[in-house]
Amino acid sequence: xxxLSYVPLISSIDHTFWTNLNAKKLDELxxxxxxxxxxxAYTNDCANGVPAxxxxxxxxxxxxxxxxxxxxxxxLNTNTVEVFKAIDYTNLLNEQGTQIWNSIKSGAAxxxxxxxxxxHCVCFADLKKYKYNFWFCFPALATSPTLVSQWTLxxxxxxxxxxxxxxxxxxxxxxxxxxxxSVKDPERLEYLVFSDPSTDLVHPGWPLRNLLALVSHHxxxxxxxxxxxxxxxxxxxxxxxxHSLLLTVTLTPLPEIPKVVxxxxxxxGKLAPKFVDLSATMDPAKISxxxxxxxxxxxxxxxxxxxxxxxLQRLKVLVLGSGTLGCNxxxxxxxxxxxxxxxxxxxxxxYSNPVRQxxxxxxxxxxxxxxxxxxxxxxxxxxxxxxxxxxxIPMPGHAVSKLEEERVRGDIEKLEGLIESADVVxxxxxTRESRWLPTLLCASKQKLCINSALGFDTYLxxxxxxxxxxxxxxxxxxxxxxxxxxxxxCYFCNDVVAPSDxxxxxxxxxxxxxxxxxxxxxxxxxxxxxxxxxxxxxxxxGAPATLDPNNTEEDSCLGRVPHQIRGFLAQYSAVQTASHxxxxxxxxxxxxxxxxxxxxxxxxxxxxxxANYLEKVSGLAEMIENTDxxxxxxxxxxxx
Length: 640
Prior knowledge:
Elements: E1 2-3, E2 10-13, H1 15-29, E3 36-42, E4 53-56, E5 69-78, H2 81-86, H3 89-106, H4 108-111, E6 118-126, E7 131-141, E8 146-152, H5 161-168, E9 173-176, E10 191-195, H6 208-218, E11 223-230, E12 233-235, E13 238-240, E14 245-251, E15 260-263, E16 274-277, H7 284-302, H8 309-313, E17 316-320, H9 324-335, E18 340-345, H10 369-380, E19 385-390, H11 402-421, E20 424-427, H12 436-444, E21 448-454, E22 458-463, E23 482-483, H13 508-511, H14 517-536, E24 545-546, E25 564-568, E26 573-577, H15 590-599, H16 601-609, H17 613-618, H18 620-625
Parallel strand pairs: 2-4, 5-6, 10-11, 17-18, 17-20, 18-19, 20-21
Antiparallel strand pairs: 1-8, 3-5, 6-7, 7-15, 7-16, 8-14, 9-10, 11-14, 12-13, 21-22, 22-25, 23-24, 25-26
Helix pairs in contact: 3-6, 9-14, 12-15
């Protein structure tokens, strides 16, 4: 006679288990350190020589029905590796063992032996590097049964095919009498049967430990029972349990909780945590996408619980102009997790561009800007869905000949389709007149338009008011500190002349955008931040703009939602302004939008080909004609 030894369980973890843990940490737990319930399963049909493994996968967090025998418990994911190292693992194991002992004392484990199969895991997940420190325990009560004899089911003449078939139906554990009928009284117990994960020819598997502790606690004196360690193998195409171990063991009463064991050993055979690095097995594109999401979600965890990241992930953005501003806007959009971007431009990368325009390298010179920018965005974030459009935007003051008319009509229809399918339009083109048609289309289609323009050491960042469907405006209130989002003016609302050909008779310095290099970085970043603030506001594009510093009711979760930001690098300052839409604006007034909707192509051709046509349609010409310029006061620098 000798003591009984057991084959320990080994955790076998599929990478999808960690994938699901990542998702739950990001979307559910955040900084919460509460344990999550998990389950694992083992089978008793492994081939000889295979370790007794407990499998965990993506579904371990769902507690779904398993085809094997189940261990249930939880996983504690710490927020720092220091907390992971500082845990009192001895005390934690004893707490787990006490729970098992309580189910033994109450007798509940006789009705439900699965209560004896518990697991617990402590881990620290480095979500940026896909590295995991973890330690599993499978708590077991260390009893001291005596092994009297040992053989296999095939060697036992008492078990015929009928009895073996009964045994094969058992899943988990069962307590049987000599007739293989279930019993609840330990004193009548003859056979303890359990599904054995071990394939060792001599030693039974780990689940037997707590089963023997259960029986030992409920007997009054020493008792000898038979243990059937069910193992099922496929032999000649048929399942057989003939190689199952049969043990005769002698048990002594167990009045008090014994020592608790169960921490898993690492690959070196030591009682210490395990470590896994999955970075090499992950798709780099998926890692990039997850890392971008992580940075954004950390903002929501710690600072902005109301931040709606999903609205940014669904967003479709059209960037008109792939120059200095367009490159910076695209980069900032990626930082906010925006993936659906269309880049539009008609130019090619020049030799002066790469040092100022962040999406281009020297090797790109001579290539189309839009397609090169789109390709670079995909390199930066492989998960981005980027389109490139190379085309010119038809402009007022740029006459369209009969030979060009068909091409221009096609460009107009294409631009209409792009704006129609976009959620947000960034207006970042070089000339004033190239902004007119996109401004009109955004106003007509109620699209959010963000406009940015540069001077030498000044910049403008503004949003256009998202028009009401009927195009109506409220009456401006002089001196009002707040303007409704639908009533805000556009880029052209402060002008008293229509846009025209501004490229004519330009000198070299006028043909290039001459601006301080840092100017575009500031303006591009502010343009994207303004868009994000608008989309975080409950009214989205209809968010009002206020100049009242004490009025925080109109803020989004990110703060102010201004109409215009005018910056001055020479003074390192910026001011916010808000203005009402001009009812005679050449781009967004009711009459211009109406004429576009009714006549479209004929109207636009007249705009392109006829000087002062827009002033007449908008009513601006009539207003100027009726203005008494004698009533206009002139001020000079000496006026006090």
